[in-house]
Amino acid sequence: MTHANAENFFAPRPRPDAAAPSAFGDRYVIQELVKALIPHPGGLRRFSVMRAIRAERGRTSRPISLKFEAEIERAFRSSCANWSGGKPPETGNALFYRPEGKAGEVWAVYADRATAWLANSADIR
Question: Domain extents for the chain?
Answer without folding.
Answer: 23-124
